[in-house]
């Protein structure tokens, strides 16, 4: 063999050797030395070799069981909703409540609750047709023995309502009755059957009530992190560094700059620490109003309306045994969460707790939701503004149908509107108006509410329009213009008066604006309210001013849901008030929408030519209508609502190029600028 | 392979004596070496599965080989379950104190086989499902193998089905667990509780303080906030693939598919069928099936045979009636089929009811009202039914589908109780993914008009235009509601002018020097900002009047969750190029405002700095442009609302810039801005900007009204 051959063979051999050693050794080593699990690496549940052979826990052959039908007698433990409440008595669209008349002597609060329910849609005076019988047990438990009420029937379908934590009068057995009491202890509370009420301070307003105290969304940079509820009823705050000492009230270290706030004053802190004792439940509501996020340490009492309110959105409920972890969690809480919790406290306070009336209505609404079952309020309606008392499930159960939830639902209001023309007094047919409105491409239908003494003219007298025009007659009452007419098929309503003068361009622009603000009233003519120092009462004026708080329903877009709310939510007393004075209807509608949205209405520029056409408002009733504002009206309304809901605005929404120095041809809504 | 290596060791010595006749020998040797090489190479580069590395650390054993533990007949038995147990009384939360990241740690006892004194096993060692469950926990973030750090203990004793175990002996087995301690922090999983004749609704095994994750709790046995109600797993879930069926009308309105129903219930159902005809279908087990056909997968009505569970997809509502037990596996099948369950089981605690909102996916009918069921269901509007169908399917996918889903949801619920401040929200539990994507939760949702007295903080971003800056400061300081002025000095090469040179103004003036010349510095949440309202203003915006600024602040108070600005801009879809275009002409619409002069809530500074999605912040700083477009995107995306442009258009250019502001510069600027919009839209995955046709003016703007009576007379002057 030649040497080059030998050499090359040598080379090839040694090269393969090297490769073999390099590649082969490490896996060989791995094979030779079985790896030990690394210390610290989790060992985990073993993967069994015979996993496939394991039997199922549930043998298909093992079909149980034709068991005896279980007895339906309530167990000795107490009652549950299915076992003790008879829903067959509940018919119709809303819960019918019968309230036992007060036994003598009655307390003021008793009388007022009675009056409030009587004025509401829940009330029935016939115990036979009632779904729920309400027994008010408001007076101190020391009161003398009350007799068993006449329709008691073992307490079936009864609710014993007590604003005090003390249990119901012991004079008769509760039987199958539900109990609504303040801060019930978790041990005796029957979930889904009883109702937990908040523990109220002695002087809680009956109606309206003070709004939440929060003035800004986010905490002020210098704000104290934590306030601690003190035993005597005050609050103690401390700087963030020393707040650890607040726990258990021990002062082993330097307590730091603590500050004691006297009883009754609301704490100015981001979080309010409330111990779990039942007596501290009072502080919970206080913190809620102050916008101080309640931190509850293992509360022994049931949170108010816990059945429907998601308290995790407004409070921190933590274990008292891990205080340091809780404190650390509060300090590290992301700003987004703090922001959300703060705002939720204010919403809940205002929606359900600020007055006794709201608490009573929330209780009834909770029970109505149980009766309604599938058509009850979804959780979203309870837990986001404006709250379940203002979102009636009888209107719709789908949040998309309401003006409030489009953002959360990712939806939009339907892109057309229905024009509603109210013809009150005899006169010319609103032909021009009908043409102008029908000219809008967004108009879906025109409804004429003919409420004049004279019959409406025959069909051929009405103009031919591209959209369907319906004339409904026989409505005489002013409040009927806000009746939820079944024929209205769109989300938006354009409320008009026979005397209103509008152009198509104005209608189009207003509708475009309304689509951005579907929960507000979007109108042209404005009024403003003011506090009359001299008279000590509210007043309102139609004079043009730098701000406004109401828009006239003679030319206004709003959501059709407000018709339902107007008719079914408002107390009878307020509606009949509006019947008497027609201008009062406008005020009432504005009050209603403002109390729901807590926001001002929106106004747009209104052509001068129209303003001259309309009779001067404030001059004193020279034209047929609208009449001059009746000063009494606004004060009666404010009394009826328990507060002044109107909010003033200083702005007007104009088209983007409104009166800008640019060619008029570029402008979409040029007719709004006509002199 | 080992042999060849040995052989080769002697190799080199042979070679020198090599002869031609040895050629064959050499070739053999060579090929052996080559073969060895190929073998090792293959071993090296063979794709190893990911688990294989795990496999080495996990012992491979047979279930039959597990250690046997003999339980003496007199070994201790735990107390019966304590009905008054709550997390704060029976749960030792201190054990969870050390768990990092607000996550509980779960320990699993190793598997043993328990036998009594006579060697008779206490139960089947472990079922397939319980093995799956423990595997799922072991694979999750909750798992720890360190018994000393664990907060929750899961015994490997399988109690999923009470019928497969001996009650007393199982209890004894539990009691001898090393950390049992009266069952504190122990979690038992049970799906089929009770046994004949009375079928208790909770596991009969005495378990003292142990938590029970049980299927079929009633209100009387369920300890609210302590136990966890879980579904009864349906093994069909794994066997049958039912693709989601879109909402819409289905053949049957109401269907009952359960086999072993109490005769009284069956009578009621038959009566419903008789009354409502074809829209109601009541199925039963098949009696006439040929051999070999799986009877669990068939249902019959008279002689008609239906495939189960496929038939469930043909019905809108499906009855889930209680049997001897309250919890029924059929619930899982029904949800999987997207059929709305009609649950008829008084006092039954629905699975995961602590967190799941069953009103959205089911109808609960009291047993007494069974005969009214049809009319109750008919009163539900079609749209709501469709939503419930989708919700039912989503519940199944998220929480019923597999043993793993059930196990993890159970642990999440317990975790949320221990760390409530880090708990998962109602929406995260209940909203289907499609809703989660489309919904917007405005961070400033409370309708609140901040008091005017708070005022605003003006933030002026400047580089070196001192003269212009001083003019801006002087102008802005005339605005009544200004409460503080913050100058962000973005020039690192030059110090800001001496204090004495600054204009004297009535509010505090602070200068912040930045470390780097970045546009993002304008939106940093400086501690100095004490008011909620922030006015971002460029150092060349000298043309805004005091009235205009004050009015802008008033508008912001009415819309505190929006960007309220002066110059407006628009984005447009360019159909030719199929992309977004930036527009600054006189248009009838706006979708953005420039932050060269805009009011906004200071929370958006926090969002811009810390929560801006993707690489937008870096893009802005790298391009030295578009920080305002980014802010517009961010605010519109979190609030779902449009901007508010205030007051009429005016010329927004500084007098000294006009000279260099050539046409070509303008065009590249526009191209760059358009690019930003396209870039941001792709990062956000959507176009969040909202287009509106309105702007805000004072109520009496340009009205025929005495100027001196107007609140904001000086508006719109050029």
From TrEMBL, chain A:
Membrane topology: Single-pass type II membrane protein
Compartmental location: Endoplasmic reticulum membrane
Gene Ontology MF terms: glucuronosyl-N-acetylglucosaminyl-proteoglycan 4-alpha-N-acetylglucosaminyltransferase activity
Glycosyl transferase domain segment(s): 417-658
Top-level lineage group: Eukaryota
Keywords annotated in UniProt: Disulfide bond, Endoplasmic reticulum, Glycoprotein, Glycosyltransferase, Membrane, Signal-anchor, Transferase, Transmembrane, Transmembrane helix
Keyword Metal-binding: no
GO annotation, biological process: heparan sulfate proteoglycan biosynthetic process
Pathway the protein contributes to: Protein modification; protein glycosylation
InterPro entries: Exostosin (IPR004263), Exostosin_GT47 (IPR040911), GT64_dom (IPR015338), Nucleotide-diphossugar_trans (IPR029044)
Keyword presence, Metal-binding: no
Enzyme Commission (EC) number: 2.4.1.224
Residue stretches making up the Exostosin GT47 domain: 95-332
A single GO cellular-component term on record: endoplasmic reticulum membrane
Physiological role: Glycosyltransferase required for the biosynthesis of heparan-sulfate (HS). Transfers N-acetyl-alpha-D-glucosamine to the nascent HS chain (GlcNAcT-II activity). Appears to lack GlcNAcT I and GlcAT-II activities.
Family classification: Belongs to the glycosyltransferase 47 family.
Protein's recorded name: Exostosin-like 1
Automatic annotation (TrEMBL), chain B:
Glycosyl transferase domain span: 456-701
Domain of life: Eukaryota
Keywords: Disulfide bond, Endoplasmic reticulum, Glycoprotein, Glycosyltransferase, Golgi apparatus, Manganese, Membrane, Metal-binding, Signal-anchor, Transferase, Transmembrane, Transmembrane helix
GO biological process terms on file: cellular response to fibroblast growth factor stimulus; chondrocyte differentiation; endochondral bone morphogenesis; fluid transport; gene expression; glycosaminoglycan biosynthetic process; heart contraction; heparan sulfate proteoglycan biosynthetic process
Involved pathway(s): Protein modification; protein glycosylation
Main enzyme class: transferase
Main localization of the protein described in the UniProt heading: endoplasmic reticulum
Membrane topology: Single-pass type II membrane protein
Transmembrane residue ranges: 24-46
UniProt name for this protein: Exostosin-2
